[in-house]
Here is the input.
Amino acid sequence: MESIPIAVIASGEYTVLREALGRIRNDGVFTLGAKIARRLGNVVLRTNSADWYYTDLSQAADYCTVSRQEAVVDFNATKEVIAWLRQIRGEFPWAWVQEELDIAREYNHVFARLRMGEEAVGYVKIGLTRSYVTDFARCIAVPEASAYIYDTFVHPERRGRGLATFLLLQTQDFLRRQNTRFVWSHIPRWNHASIGAYRRAGFAEVKHVRYVRFMGLRLFSHHPERLMRCAEDGLLRSLSRRQHEGGGVDS
Here is the structure.
């Protein structure tokens, strides 16, 4: 093994020390300490929460329908959607998650494109078998009779026209033809626009799920995989009925 001269090691250590002192001088001790604390906090503790929604495609639809004759949804457009995501990820960086795309390719997820004429204006990402959930930074299993919508997007310039509801209704029709029975999604409570679109498309809130990762240990208030399995066992029907009647479900 070739030895490294002590002078070189000292030079490298001096460079690292000089950079560290420069950061302290520029940012201040307290600012630098706050940055370090935030990073350590993300490693030690991470938490978020969202409401999980589902719809049963075997049930007769009693919700409002939306007609948008000028809008078209292409369900055989995964490559086109990925190409569009690559174009817009500078403006919408959250739309491009590499782990999400890798799992989508591996398990043949469906990326549908919403377009007006030839202009792409939105998309929906549909997970099958396994799906990567960005909020959990991990994959979840999707039952055979279910699909999981993990991202719905309409360009801001095209919002306020009912296109998100139209996209969801078209997605349900597509999945029904694929013999899918249950469709799932999760939405944080601050996203009122998405909640409205999903409810207009017939989705019902099932549970509020809190996720906590502490020192590498992952905890769920209600595990999404168990909720999906309960739907297949017929245990969520009463909850869905209460939601459509306006009743709440305690978390």
User: Anything to note?
Assistant: The first strand starts at residue 45 and ends at 56. Residues 52 and 144 are 18 Å apart (CA to CA). The longest helix spans residues 6-27. The two ends are 61 Å apart (CA to CA).
